Amino acid sequence: MYEQHFGLKEKPFSLSPDPGFLYFSKGHKLALTMLEYGVESRSGFTLISGEVGCGKTTLIRHFLANLSEKHTVGLVSNTHASFGELIDLILLSFDLDYANKSNTEKYHIFESFLINQYSQGRNTVLVIDEAQNLTPEMLEELRVISNINADKDQLIQVVLTGQPEIRDTLKLPEMKQFAQRISSDFHLEPLSYKQLAQYIKHRVAVAGSAEELFTAKAIRMIYNFSRGIPRIANSFCDMALVYAYADGLYKVDWKTVMQVAIDKKNMGALGIL
Q1: Cβ-contact 187, 150 below 8 angstroms
Q2: What's the rounded Cα separation, in Å, for the pair 219 and 251?
Q3: Contact, 185 vs 47, CB < 8 A?
Q4: Which residues are bridge partners to 72 per DSSP?
């Protein structure tokens, strides 16, 4: 809608995770390092947590897209118990047939799969997104599944990503044994004001413009409204560009951002910022 007006090739602030727009703040760089270390060292469990909208899924997609071909990856993106048993979701993520099998047979299928992958020199990685939905019972099942070893090597590396609640679950007394299996973890914090300014500039540049489309005061207001959470900032930036386009402006100023905030408050479906 506004791309041509601002000299952009595409929308820079989509709410959908897009690894092509990933901005590497210091926190994101450290989180990626933890992911790479956890997988390459075959160290068992890696945990990446963060508030909603802080970029966990985008980071994971970038990480998976850059894994070497020696890795076999399974992704479980919805862990709610209503979607089925955990072992079923895991087998499905690796495209393994488990229809009409008992739980014992399912575990045997997965064990044989891991051994086969290992014998071919492949590293099996299981990524579980939205891990905050895992119950203590499901986490214990996951721990048992991960116990399949060959000599000193673990046959599967597990990456957990989720909201802060997953950390609360892992602090429960009954989760002590599981928590001890986590070899690397990192918690993604919201962006600072300086980081958010760089984030906005980065996404505009990736979308095709070398221009400064947001004034310093506009960015300060976006930071205040978004609290440094990228997904919320994206929503403000996108709508601010729409408003600026409608008014024939070529740069977003603080008045435009304020109008977006007012309209979000007064006319949004939820009546909240």
Answers
A1: no
A2: 12
A3: yes
A4: 124
